[in-house]
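Work package 3, deliverable 3.1, input record:
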Amino acid sequence: MVCGSCLWWNRSADSSTTEVSEPLPQPEHGVTVVFVALPNTKIELLEPLGDGSPIAAFLARNPAGGIHHICYEVEDIRSARDRLKSAGARVLGDGEPKVGAHGKPVLFLHPKDFCGTLVELELA
Amino acid sequence: MVCGSCLWWNRSADSSTTEVSEPLPQPEHGVTVVFVALPNTKIELLEPLGDGSPIAAFLARNPAGGIHHICYEVEDIRSARDRLKSAGARVLGDGEPKVGAHGKPVLFLHPKDFCGTLVELELA
């Protein structure tokens, strides 16, 4: 979820029952992230960091913010990639996993192949 | 996720390891839905049904589809609503829960109060 400074971020940080991380700058990815840990999923709040942030275009198209992508944890990221590729999905970039926000390998899949939805795969 | 006929829908339905529902027309909500049950969450695929579908405007803005909303399960939907209202969030419609796709009470919160994200609450 791309988020500047909104009600959700501010209020969530007040909560004593939900685990909310400190803002974590990730200069190599051009974003600052906050993770909100729920019992069965995580919400990732994203804010552009620096010039040429990869989410700058998204915010230009969605000035109020919005849901940027969804992430699925997978047991074997290369096997998942190859299965999706064989089904016709396009993998972004050079197709090789990169280290993501949790220090784990991640890949992104082309939104045009998933109903306009940017899909991230992360090694569980 | 708003989805016409895409790779994801078609391929997921082939999977023998993932529970994918049959398309379920919901004329009263103006959508046809498919649920993909994952171990810790559900993906809801939405397709407009009939004239004046509530997702028609979304598809007009996002012809390729996209992520339409996120849904949080809550233990007490009126208590959750009141807490969010007291924090400044706006509840859509008349503010009273309606019966959603799972036959459970649901509410929607104003995207402008959640970084451009349409948020649904559903009674767990």
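The radius of gyration of chain A is 15 Å.
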